[in-house]
Amino acid sequence: MARTLFNGDASSVNPFLSTNISVTERFAALVCYQRRYSQHENYVDSGSIEYFDDWPANFYQELDDVTAGAESRLIDLFNRTSFSSIFGNLILDSQCLLPEGRRPHFIYLTMMDYLHELVSANPKSKKPNVADMLVSVAETSVILSATHEQVYRLYQEGILTSGFRQKLRSRIEPHIGVFYLRQVIEFKASFGGNPHGVYLSAW
After folding, report:
1. pLDDT for res 79
2. pLDDT tens digits for 12-45?
3. Is 120 helix (H, G, I), strand (E, B) or coil?
4. Measured in whole angstroms, how far is the alpha carbon of residue 13 from the centre of its chain?
5. Which pLDDT score is estimated for 38?
């Protein structure tokens, strides 16, 4: 395990073993794996590297299964349901590393690809669907690779709209689902491959 973490394997197609990622990125992947799966009954810490052998197909299949069963778990409509109540800490855990000055982690990029496809495959309609779930300020900051303060500015400027009526002069709690996933993903996509900093307010 130690040799794998530090050296990788140039001949492997496993992204965890790629020599194109750093030791720090490998440790971050292990932490993400542990956060997501350590509560499962069949969790085996030593299986973490093997888990990435089938990446990203196994990850996408897992998320597809959650998406397929999302409607059966609803208590309210999708547009009044928090993303985390269906998908857990998927977005927050995918961050792995803080974005400042670092390239995006491969787990984050895979998660973002899935969310883009989820929104694309579920266009807006009269009946709310899975792409209309609500993400929190914290989740939105991860998706946009922005700070919480920048997310609040986007809300204050009307770029992001709240799914609930907010009390005057009250600050939105950072871990409460409030912004539509569809709107956040579409806003992210509007910037293409632009670097960090595009979300800074003009003032």
Report:
1. 95
2. 889 988 988 888 889 889 888 888 887 765 655 6
3. helix
4. 24
5. 78
Strand partners, 135: 179
> In sequence order, which ranges of the chain are alpha helices (DSSP H)?
2-7, 23-37, 48-51, 57-68, 83-87, 90-94, 106-121, 137-144, 148-156, 181-189
196: nearest Cα among 116, 142, 136: 142
Cβ-proximal residues to 166 (8 Å cutoff; 6+ apart), any chain: 172
Residues in a beta bridge with 162: 179
Measuring CA to CA, which residue among 42, 26, 24, 44 is closest to residue 34? 44
| For the chain, counts of helices (H) and of strands (E) | 10, 2
Length of the chain: 203
Q: Which of 114, 111, 68, 116 shows the shortest CA–CA distance to 93?
A: 111
**Residue holding tokens 């971050």?**
28
With a threshold of 0.85, does the pTM exceed it? yes
Of the chain, the end-to-end C-alpha distance in Å amounts to 49
DSSP annotation of 124: -
Spatial distance between the Cα atoms of 113 and 74, rounded to a whole number of angstroms: 24
Query: Which of 143, 40, 163 is closest to 99 using CA atoms?
Result: 143
In the chain, which residues have pLDDT < 70?
A: 40-46, 98-102, 166-170, 192-203
Tokens found for residue 178: 């409030």
